[in-house]
From TrEMBL:
Organism (species): Panicum miliaceum (Proso millet)
GO cellular component term of the entry, any: membrane
InterPro entries reported for this sequence: Aquaporin-like, Aquaporin_transptr, MIP
Transmembrane segments: 12-34, 54-72, 84-103, 123-144
Stored Pfam families: MIP (PF00230)
Subcellular localization(s) per the UniProt record: Membrane
Name of the protein described by the UniProt record: Aquaporin NIP1-4-like
Membrane topology according to the record: Multi-pass membrane protein
Length: 164
């Protein structure tokens, strides 16, 4: 368990940095492709109040993380349907929360365009909401998961299975 936590502590921050750099590069590429004639960058900003968007970002990221934990880390789930379950959750989140908050669900998706467009209005909503929602979703899934095995054991057994 200790080696798993050390592994996660070193890889998660690196993954977050890489995602943010990639989102920034993609936003910059779009700006260059369109010659700056469009909106500075497709920056995610609340249509409603900041509090409405914060709550929605928390809820939709909570659901997304819960589904990801259920289909991607639990060896009792059917692996072939994981993509459909995650994609369907993202689609429903975008349909319901998109008109109010933009349905970011990922801080990097909001930070990259904000950096390129120099528009930081309510950026805190898109950082704090998804972080808190993902943490709560993972915690809630571990709470309801019925098994005596730890998450590290489940994840290790899921990644060590031979591919069909």
């Amino acid at each position: 368990m200790a080696s798993y936590m050390i592994h996660a502590r070193t890889q998660v921050p690196a993954y977050m940095v890489v995602q943010t750099v990639a989102a920034t590069a993609a936003s910059l590429m779009l700006r260059l492709m369109f010659g700056g004639r469009h909106e500075a960058a497709p920056v995610t900003v609340p249509v409603g109040s900041n509090m409405q968007s914060l709550v929605l970002e928390f809820i939709i990221t909570f659901y997304l993380m819960f589904v990801i934990m259920a289909v991607a880390t639990d060896d009792r789930a059917v692996g072939q349907m994981a993509g459909l379950a995650v994609g369907g959750t993202i689609m429903l989140n975008a349909l319901f929360a998109g008109p109010v908050s933009g349905a970011s669900m990922n801080p990097a998706r909001s930070i990259g365009p904000a950096l390129v467009g120099s528009k930081y209005k309510a950026l805190w909503v898109y950082i704090f909401g998804p972080f808190a929602g993902a943490a709560a979703g993972a915690w809630a899934y571990n709470l309801v998961r019925r098994t005596e095995r730890t998450l590290a054991e489940i994840t290790k057994s899921a990644t060590s299975r031979p591919a069909n």
